[in-house]
Amino acid sequence: MEMSVEIVAHAPAFAMVAETGADVAAREALLDRAMGPMRRKKSSEKLRRGRRPSEGLAFVARDASGGVAGTVRLWDVRLGEGGRAALLLGPLAVDPSLKNAGIGSALMRHAVAEAARLGHAAILLVGDAPYYGRFGFSAARTGSLAMPGPYERHRLLALELVEGALDGAQGTLKAAGRKLKAQATMAA
Ligand SMILES: CC(C)(COP(=O)(O)OP(=O)(O)OC[C@H]1O[C@@H](n2cnc3c(N)ncnc32)[C@H](O)[C@@H]1OP(=O)(O)O)[C@@H](O)C(=O)NCCC(=O)NCCS
């Protein structure tokens, strides 16, 4: 069999870039591969369904040939009824064949930096503290917050982008993102 590519001794370059409409099918297929079909049953999904990601905060890790190697998005939420604004991060996923190459970390750092640049105050997520701790996330400030559905309390993590942003924050997270439907009815 003819080899058409050189053997790559180190990880090829991936670019962390804004997701485009052309990436949606590849992103969904990647999420199914990385997380399985139960991903749609998560409590986080309740806060995402029918909404668009926060403006400018949907990213893919793009490989040299334009393919999607990883994905992360952030969503607008409110902390409690009428509460303060924050972001919910997720899902974060990397193609299973490319795990442990630093792509997840690069996506996380890019997402956090962009959220801070856009003036957001705090990011929440449901995930493994041993992974997300390296990016500054912890459960220290989420004790009075709750997801709208079943979740493991110790996995609700937060990162303040503005110091003190989560002081006194309490209540159940509510979806606050732009609705998908609004796009279609805008012209009416
Ligand atoms: C979790 C995930 C996004 C990490 O992406 P990645 O590109 O493989 O990760 P990175 O290369 O940036 O980091 C790898 C490091 O994270 C560690 N790590 C990965 N998942 C971890 C977890 N769940 N808990 C603790 N550490 C974890 C690895 O052991 C490795 O550690 P090392 O740096 O000490 O060697 C990816 O494995 C994935 O898509 N998993 C399936 C979907 C998923 O679980 N998403 C997160 C939902 S909470």
CATH fold annotation: Aminopeptidase
Supply the number of helical segments. Answer: 5
What is the correct CATH architecture?
A: 3-Layer(aba) Sandwich
> What is the C-level CATH assignment?
Alpha Beta
In total, how many domains does the architecture comprise? 1
Shape: globular
Q: Structural class, from secondary structure content?
A: alpha+beta
Helix content: 10-25%
Give the cofactors and ligands: coenzyme A
Strand tally: 9
Q: Looking at this structure, what is the CATH superfamily?
A: Gcn5-related N-acetyltransferase (GNAT)
pLDDT averaged residue by residue: 91
Low-confidence stretches: 1-9
Domain N-acetyltransferase: 14-162
Organism: Mesorhizobium erdmanii
Keywords: Transferase
InterPro entries: Acyl_CoA_acyltransferase, GNAT_dom
Word description of this protein:
This protein is α+β, with helices and mostly antiparallel strands and 188 residues long. It has one domain: Gcn5-related N-acetyltransferase (GNAT) (Aminopeptidase, 3-Layer(aba) Sandwich). It is built from five helices and nine strands, in the order E-H-H-E-E-E-E-H-E-H-E-E-E-H. Strands 1, 2, 3, 4, 5, 6, 7, 8 and 9 form a nine-stranded mixed beta sheet that branches. Strand 3 (68-79) and strand 4 form a beta hairpin. The chain is globular and about 45 Å long. Bound molecules: coenzyme A. The site of coenzyme A has 16 residues, from helix 1, strand 5, helix 3 and helix 4. Keywords: Transferase. Residues 14-162 form the N-acetyltransferase domain. Pfam families: Acetyltransf_7.
